[in-house]
Amino acid sequence: MKEVTAEEWNICTPPAGVQTTRFTIENLKENAEYNFRICAINSEGVGDHADVHGSVVIAEKVEAPEIELDADLRKVVSVRAGGSLRLFVTIRGRPTPAVTWEKAEETLTDRAQIESTSSYTMLVIDNVNRFDSGKYILNLENTSGTKSAFVNVRVLDTPSAPQKFEVKDVKKDSVTLCWEPPLMDGGAKITNYIVEKRESTRKAFTTVMSNCTQTFFKIDELQEGGIFYFRVCAVNEFGCGPITVKDNVDPPRIMMDVKFRDVVVVKAGETLKIHADFAGRPLPIALWTKDGKEIELKARIQVSGTDTSTTVTIKDCIRSDSGQYVLTLQNVAGSVSMPVNCVILDKPGPSAGPLVVSGITAEECNLTWGPPQEKGGAEITHYVLEKRETSRLAWTLVHGEVKKTGFRVTNLLKENEYIFRVLAVNKYGNGEALESDAIKVYVTSEFMALSWAKPASDGGSEIFGYIIERREKSSIHWIRVNRELTCDLKYEVTKLRKGCEYEFRVYAENAAGLSLPSDPSTLARAEDKLDVPASPTKPKIVDSTKNSVSVSWNKPLSDGGTPILGYSVEYKKTEDEEWTTAVQITKNMEFIVSGLTADVEYVFAVKAINKIGVSDISPVSEPQVAKDREEAPVFDVDIEMRKTLIVKHGHSFTLTAPFKGKPVPSTTSHIIKGLRENAEYLFRVRAENHAGLSEPKEMIIPVIVREQLGKLLYYCIVYIFRSLKRQKHTI
């Protein structure tokens, strides 16, 4: 073969050729164009080549979807009521087409199960009824096109009830009944109708006509003045359908033991049985559901009943059988439901995940999780926490009685990889375990972990142990590390100097003495293992305006071994899913998020950043509406303002009174000069606008200017005005 643009031909087969007349060439360039030729080989050598006509472009072969319907599916598929409908259809297409099934003019039943592969698709509906009749449409689609086909299905069943049943032409001794055929004939022709009547003083119906072939019937010889009820049902080869009753229907009623009104408690492994009697005319249809879904029948879950009763039986109860069971009855007169709440006493389910590992250091880490959703009908008393090294199969206990959904694990081995699991406990025992992902504890600058293999030969004597030596890069001397022999094939070297580079070697010792040293290890630097920081604390709302919110937070518990460079602040509307970045990085631990929409509720979160990367997002802040905060005006008067101010007679003075409030309060003040000593004054103020002067506002307490022991006493009144409130402070 060769590319069209190339000159030289390449041999694709082995030098001796192949024995078959078919060969697959691999590792070609996508979308490249190639020429191919073939030569035959015999004992005399290689023959002339035969060129493959034209060139070949290497591209994925595409094929429009195709549907192959069996001959049986091209006809009407008939299924008896209560049986299973299975439609198996062969399909093809490249790429594999997407498969959808639908039912013409109505929604596909929830009982339909669909299985699809690259070569076939299958629709299965178990326990079919007359309502499953109809046209089922199969649709295929890929990038090369679409394809559709349909299969007509007929469920062989009794017909549905006649429609629009009416009493017409009432006379003193006769009536005429009229109706329309059933909406569904059950897959077979309606052969006749059965007409019945009942006097109001009797309970049983009697047959008036069992072989009526019309959609009307006249009943004669009725007692004048009598009250009668009439009903009619359709018949096909599979039997009588539901009855349509005229003026003779009763809504369904459920009769259940009073014990089912309370929560039903059953121990795990025992049998739960809920029985109900019911009545109604015509006989209602009973349906059991659990937590809003129809009960799925299994070997241990069965629903049985008669015309007037129904029972759901669950054997060998398990925790997931807890929930609300609802019996619903329905007939033409209405429907009624009754719930029964059940609790299965069992061990708890798994704790709510994930099991989060954070704050990892050389020997410690934090674990957090959520309480289990399935508590087994009893309160969770505590949690059992266990750990396992990934190199081992056995779990070891970390703590047997953890009361909260969080724990700080200590005494971990440096550089080891761990998996943790937590089990919720109630009075019935330990629940299912929730496991964490594998984590590795940090290596610090204080130690290094070494490992080696046994020598190829023990020298004819058992090896007693090993001696480890180390040497700094800048030194020529080797220093023994372990004072006693170590029998393990690994060792932790401690008391190293941060930033120094070391190499190590190992001796083996037997009865004959020490071996030659191993080759030195590669140089390794003693330094802390770096990671992204832990998450900052939950942000707190400091202040807000109509278009901004100020938040603050605290630094994370761990900086990942390298200083925090800054923080990223994010926010979103409470109902939104996506976060918006307010600032990529800020070194402060407080930030004002601006550009917000007034009166909209937001939440905020923070991420810590170091040179390794970005931490996980912090816990989300409390929701905060972007609006101006309102604070009533107050004076901020310190002790100096409460001292007597000495002023020369005839001079003026100024008082400054600090105040605060949100929005900022407006103030009005005026300095009055030239007051006479010992004179008593009253003041009043008027407001003026373009329309004139307002009524005066007068003081209640007079101001006296007098000199006493060389000190001038004074009064000053300051008013602060605000839309919400007004305060007065007298100095």
TrEMBL record:
Residue span(s) of domain Ig-like: 65-154
Domain called Fibronectin type-III: residue spans: 1-61, 161-254, 351-433, 434-528, 535-628
Domain of life: Eukaryota
GO molecular function list: structural constituent of muscle
Listed GO biological process terms: cardiac muscle tissue development; sarcomere organization
SUPFAM superfamilies, per database record: Fibronectin type III, Immunoglobulin
UniProt entry keywords in alphabetical sequence: Immunoglobulin domain, Repeat
Protein name listed in UniProt: Titin
Organism: Denticeps clupeoides (denticle herring)
Origin organism lineage: Eukaryota, Metazoa, Chordata, Craniata, Vertebrata
